[in-house]
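Reply to thread "Modeling small-molecule complexes from scratch"

Following up on the discussion above, here's a worked example others can learn from. I took a protein sequence and the SMILES for flavin-adenine dinucleotide and predicted the complex. Inputs first:
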Amino acid sequence: MRRKRFFAIAVSLTCAGWPLTALSEGANGQMLAQACVGCHGASWDGQGAITDLRGYDRDSFLRVWEEFRTDERPATIMNRITRGYTEAEVAALADFFASLD
Amino acid sequence: MNNRYSRRQFGSLITASAATLAMPRVLRAQTEGRLLVIGGGFGGATAARFAKMTYPDVSVTLVEPHSSFVTCPYGNLILGGKKQLSNITHSYDGLRARGVNVIHDRAREIDAEGHRVTLDGGDVLEYDKLILSPGIGLRWNAIEGYDEAASEIFPHAWWGGDGSQITNLRAQLEALPEGGVVGLSIPDNPFRCPPGPYERISMIAHHLKQANPTAKILAFDSKEGFSKQGLFEDAWAELYGDMIEWIPASQDGRIMRVDPENKLFISEFGEEHRVDVGNVIPPQYAASIARDAGLTNESGWVPVDQHTFEAEAARDIHVIGDANIAAPMPKSGYIANSTAKTAVKAALAEITGRPAWEDPVYFNTCYSHAGADYAVSVAAIFRPTAEGFEATPDSGGISPRGPLSELSRNRRLESRYADAWYESITNDMFS
Ligand SMILES: Cc1cc2nc3c(=O)[nH]c(=O)nc-3n(C[C@H](O)[C@H](O)[C@H](O)COP(=O)(O)OP(=O)(O)OC[C@H]3O[C@@H](n4cnc5c(N)ncnc54)[C@H](O)[C@@H]3O)c2cc1C
């Protein structure tokens, strides 16, 4: 039952498919990334069992994000979170994390 | 922790902001301003830290009566025997080290016109912009007989304060007679932390299951349903058998009066319930400083602009956290943290010449512990719209439901991630 529903979502999102070259169109990556500090470390530097996001490769970030969104990547919560952002916002996040060292 | 990283991060924030600013130095010096923050909790501590890190030239003063901050989040784990008070108590030294001027006093009066705040100690502070995050006030006597004195016998433990409320409740649970009754009274919406009472029920049950397995928990609710209800009810059935009885308003769950001396809860239909330990979570409104300043409407909460959090009733006062009206966003620590940053950027845009966040996104996650190695969560992404705050469609939501045999790994992982959340967000306030 659950599987079937996820399958339907996956199909519809893949059709809407994001190109990996998505542009941030002025979305504010640094402010959007403030939402992540509540789990990924106050400087995005990782916290306990949750990963460091600094220096995340841009293309990998976009791919991993899309996999969470479509339930192709195991997740407890990132699947629910990734569905809440626009393409431009995700691109801005990808740019921002890639720029951190 | 991780000072090395935060210093590095701090450096890169400054570089980034200098680059995007590209403003002549003279202008920057002229635009220095004074930001005053009242309340050093989830909204206020976040705002002060973020302001100082993002706008090093702005002077930031934080007023908070307590010399350290006891969080409500993870307080329920003290009841469950999983945490001690010291684990949820935070020092303001980190903020001081970053250059925030921390004053331990209570703000008594706000002169919005004159841009001045008078403290209990008599000092008067001037500001250009004020961020107000004073949290909640408890409506004493809204439940007849429930006043401050009664809260010594029937603790609310619904604010951190000096930690005495939560330790009082814990001590009473430890002293509960064998097979005794724990009663909770839970208010109608809106109130601080919608899933909080149900996490509390779970953590009390977790303690009793080991220490006093024949005890009972009666949860009297003024509502018909609650946050993450299915997930909590699954957990209660799986972990605690019939220890917990939840009584909705329609089944006479509304407690109208308490008699602490005789340890009685009296319901809407006049039923008297004897409890050995009572936890009364009373109806709430914005903390007194917001009400006294005339910022609240008839609901007792503060109407604010959805992009800037400026109070509708006063210029240059931005009200964040539980005190404002932001439904359907919950009154949560995460929302206070998330909105604090938007409010700071909006407040300081004018005086620093740096843009506000034009298209803000507000973020919430609340983890709740239902047992040992067992947590569930709710997440939501909100945006301001013409109709008010709105949850972004087809996103967020609660942890999956299903038999524990299939989900035990998920529940265990979420309990670990919840611990990471607590560390991470409190570092974003105090480190
Ligand atoms: C049991 C429980 C569990 C919770 N669990 C979670 C959770 O897991 N996740 C989550 O996101 N949220 C949780 N919350 C909710 C969270 O605690 C609140 O939403 C959050 O504290 C709101 O932040 P705030 O800044 O509005 O208020 P607070 O954090 O309460 O801070 C307000 C501060 O203002 C100070 N103050 C008040 N009046 C004045 C004055 N006149 N002058 C100066 N200072 C003043 C107070 O002393 C206080 O320190 C929980 C709440 C409870 C009760």
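What I'd highlight from this example: The pocket of flavin-adenine dinucleotide is lined by residues B 38-44, 63-66, 69, 72-73, 75-76, 106-107, 133-135, 158-159, 192-193, 196, 200, 287, 289, 321-323, 331-334, 336, 366-367 (CB under 6 Å). Confidence is low (pLDDT under 50) at residues 1-20 of chain A. Questions welcome below.
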